[in-house]
Amino acid sequence: MLVIGLDVGATKVAAGLGRADGTILERRVIATRRLDPDRLLDDLGELVADLHRSGPDAPVNIGIGICGLVEPETGRVARSIALGWSEPFALRDALTRRTGCRVLVDNDVNAGALGEQRWGAGVGVDDFVYLSVGTGIGAGIVLGGRLQGGASGAAGEVGHMVIDLRGRPCRCGNRGCLEALASGQAVGEIVTAELASGVAASSSLATIAASGRAITARDVFSAAAAGEPYACDVVRRTGEYLAVAVVNLVNLLDPRRVVVGGGLTHTGHLLVDAIREALGRWTACGGDAAKIVLPAALGEDTGLRGAMAVALQGTPGAA
Ligand SMILES: [Zn+2]
């Protein structure tokens, strides 16, 4: 059985044709045309046609993981801040009409959870949380073997779980949200502000900042991997905030595993190690919690294979 996965992010669309065992046979990557849903639809239609030309004669199921709030039952994207869509868009129905294929849609983090459930760190685990830490932060919650959508598809928006009442302002309007403290974007902003105030003036990050280029989380994690004390301290603090979220999730949901993926984990295990270390250091039950935190298994292919897993929903192998 063949499926097509479409991983729609704010900067790029990754498309792949693959098998039900998760093998990717063909891939395409294009830049995302944001703001206008009809332009994105044109691009997705082209990608699907192109992948069909290189493989199957008959239409295959399509799964989409997209960075937005999705109603999985209807395949409607209610809104997407990352894509600049403020109005709902009936993505499933529009792409079905265009391609003649069966189309299923979910948000990108839920798709990642489905991918980990089918082929990764969630195989054989009925109750787990997939925590995605990238530019933003979100979670896919699997309980009793089933992905939980909540009343409106918004379950798992843990990026806006408040971790510090008096913390940094978040784009949602609150203060101290997890995403404002520990996301890739937050790490870049926090480090930029600290360097501007004269902290760690001799670090390689200060040299980058002095050159005028914006500091990214990737810069910070690379410097930490090289052992720079300031960067290591930033990673430690980031892990600590995420550990607070993990403790809250564990107390709320009692998962068997917390699987940590997303862009900040693609350069190694520094972040997962920092979360485990914080858990062990400051909570009585932290040692137990640390044991259930582990890295996502699909790495940089989580998005694409997650979208393929969305396409496979309702077929044998997983819910
Ligand atoms: Zn927020």
Topology:
Elements: E1 2-8, E2 12-19, E3 24-31, H1 37-53, E4 61-66, E5 69-71, E6 76-79, H2 91-99, E7 103-107, H3 108-119, E8 128-133, E9 137-143, E10 146-147, H4 178-182, H5 184-196, H6 204-210, H7 217-225, H8 229-253, E11 257-261, H9 270-282, H10 286-292, E12 293-295, H11 302-311
Parallel strand pairs: 1-4, 4-7, 8-11, 11-12
Antiparallel strand pairs: 1-2, 2-3, 5-6, 8-9, 9-10
Helix pairs in contact: 1-2, 3-11, 5-7, 7-8, 8-9, 9-10
The structure holds zinc ion (ZN).
The site of zinc ion has 6 residues, from loops.
Descriptive report:
The protein is built from eleven helices and twelve strands. The strands form three sheets. Strands 3-2-1-4-7 form a five-stranded mixed beta sheet. It has a five-stranded mixed beta sheet with strand order 10-9-8-11-12, sandwiched between helices. A two-stranded antiparallel sheet has the order 5-6. The mean pLDDT is 92. With 319 residues, it is of the alpha/beta class. Helix 1 crosses helix 2 (91-99), helix 5 (184-196) crosses helix 7 and helix 9 packs antiparallel against helix 10. The longest helix has 25 residues, at 229-253. Helix content is 40%, strand content 20%. The protein has helices at residues 37-53, 91-99, 108-119, 178-182, 184-196, 204-210, 217-225, 229-253, 270-282, 286-292, 302-311, and strands spanning 2-8, 12-19, 24-31, 61-66, 69-71, 76-79, 103-107, 128-133, 137-143, 146-147, 257-261, 293-295. Bound molecules: zinc ion.
